[in-house]
Each structure stands twice: as structure tokens, then as C-alpha cells.
Amino acid sequence: MAPPIQFITGNANKLREVKAILEPQIEIQSQSLDLEEIQGTIEEVAESKCRRAADLVNGPVLVEDTALCFNALGGLPGPYIKWFLDKTGHQGLNNLLAAYEDKSAEAVCTFAYSPGPGRDPIIFQGRTPGRIVPARGPSKFGWDPVFEFEGKTYAEMESAEKNKISHRARALKKLQTWFESQQETA
Ligand SMILES: O=c1[nH]c(=O)c2ncn([C@@H]3O[C@H](COP(=O)(O)OP(=O)(O)OP(=O)(O)O)[C@@H](O)[C@H]3O)c2[nH]1
Ligand SMILES: [Mg+2]
């Protein structure tokens, strides 16, 4: 049996999805720490969060950072989506693309795992392509109502359906494969 993983997040929706996808194979324990999020690429943000978390926890940690990248805007808002969503809402995200024909976007989930303080984080990334649309479906989680994948917004999907194709599920598949290979060599 694999040892439990400490997942550091302040976001209950993320935690629920991570548990739904990984358990029972991998047990998830969680802590909420307010980790500074630097400016930089998606990978740099996740890596720096992970190093800080490993120092604070003084042990192995998993962190995650989510980005929503609009292709017409060269990948922005990217890792800054949280602040764009907070300040402009679902309609505002649509308005950002009003001047462009291209409404395509990519949801990007980046997990970073560190075995402990001072150890280099390992990155696992999953990407799901989609489109930004006027909000449809229940507003339970962030920008789920405005991100459409193959005709349905994330918010219109049952959680099991989203958890099969989401950016988070794709990243966790890579993480799971890596953890399994570590167990075999241990
Ligand atoms: O509709 C959504 N479907 C998703 O699947 C999803 N995953 C993340 N988010 C939102 O995108 C921003 C990422 O920012 P973020 O990665 O820094 O997260 P966070 O600050 O909430 O938590 P954490 O950093 O403590 O883990 C935050 O606004 C999250 O609510 C999502 N919204
Ligand atoms: Mg955050």
C-alpha cells in the first residue's frame, strides 16, 4: 500500500476531485497553507509553491496550480485566471474574447511533488482543449460553467464525467503512473 500523500491546497473543490480520482489507490491527506504564488510560467508557479510547501511541512508534499489559457490572447490569463475570474466573473471572461473570432482555450493542471525540503519538485501536467462560452450549468466550481469540452461545459457534466477527461484527471494519470513506478523500485 502506497503511503498517504499530503496535498496542500486551500481549494475544497480541487481536493474533492483529487480524492475522487486517486482514492482508493492513493490516500490523500490535505492541509491548507496560504502559499505565495509568484509571477512566471505555469510550471514556475507550481514549482515555487511546491518548494515553499515542502519547507513549511518539512516532508513530502503535493501542490497543484490551475491555469486557463485563451489561445487568442497568447495563453493569458493562464496562471492568473483566479484573479481574472474574481474580478470580472463569467461574463467578463467571455468579454475578454469579444474582439476575437477564436474562442478556443486550454485548461491546464500542473501538479508538483517534492519528496522534502530542498529536493527538486517533479512536475505532472494535464491539458484539456475547449472553448469559452456564455455560462451554462450550475456554478459550483470556478470557471466550470464557461469552459466547454466537446459540446458540454464542465459544469453540465456529472462529476464522474468531468473527472475522466479534465485537465486535472489527465495530470493525475501521469502522477499515478509515476507513483506506481516508484513503488515497484522501492
Ligand atoms: O471551473 C473550474 N474548474 C476547475 O477544474 C478548476 N480548477 C481550478 N479552478 C479555479 O482556477 C483558479 C486556479 O487558481 P489556483 O490554482 O491558484 O487555485 P486556488 O488558489 O483556488 O487553490 P490552491 O492554490 O490553494 O491550490 C481558481 O480560481 C480555481 O477556483 C477551476 N475552476
Ligand atoms: Mg492558489
TrEMBL record:
InterPro entries: ITPase (IPR027502), ITPase-like_fam (IPR029001), RdgB/HAM1 (IPR002637). Mg(2+) binds at residues 37, 65. Its EC number is 3.6.1.66. ITP binds at residues 9-14, 49, 65-66, 141-144, 162, 167-168. One of its GO terms (biological process) is deoxyribonucleoside triphosphate catabolic process. GO terms for molecular function: dITP diphosphatase activity; ITP diphosphatase activity; metal ion binding; nucleotide binding; XTP diphosphatase activity. This is Inosine triphosphate pyrophosphatase. It is an enzyme of class 3 (hydrolase). Keywords: Cytoplasm, Hydrolase, Magnesium, Manganese, Metal-binding, Nucleotide metabolism, Nucleotide-binding, Nucleus. It holds the Pfam family Ham1p_like. Pyrophosphatase that hydrolyzes the non-canonical purine nucleotides inosine triphosphate (ITP), deoxyinosine triphosphate (dITP) as well as 2'-deoxy-N-6-hydroxylaminopurine triphosphate (dHAPTP) and xanthosine 5'-triphosphate (XTP) to their respective monophosphate derivatives. The enzyme does not distinguish between the deoxy- and ribose forms. Probably excludes non-canonical purines from RNA and DNA precursor pools, thus preventing their incorporation into RNA and DNA and avoiding chromosomal lesions. Pyrophosphatase that hydrolyzes non-canonical purine nucleotides such as inosine triphosphate (ITP), deoxyinosine triphosphate (dITP) or xanthosine 5'-triphosphate (XTP) to their respective monophosphate derivatives. The enzyme does not distinguish between the deoxy- and ribose forms. Probably excludes non-canonical purines from RNA and DNA precursor pools, thus preventing their incorporation into RNA and DNA and avoiding chromosomal lesions. One of its GO terms (cellular component) is nucleus. Its cofactor is Mg(2+); Mn(2+). It comes from Trichoderma simmonsii. Belongs to the HAM1 NTPase family. Homodimer. It catalyses: ITP + H2O = IMP + diphosphate + H(+); XTP + H2O = XMP + diphosphate + H(+); N(6)-hydroxy-dATP + H2O = N(6)-hydroxy-dAMP + diphosphate + H(+); dITP + H2O = dIMP + diphosphate + H(+). Binds 1 divalent metal cation per subunit; can use either Mg(2+) or Mn(2+). Its main location: cytoplasm. It is found in: Cytoplasm; Nucleus.
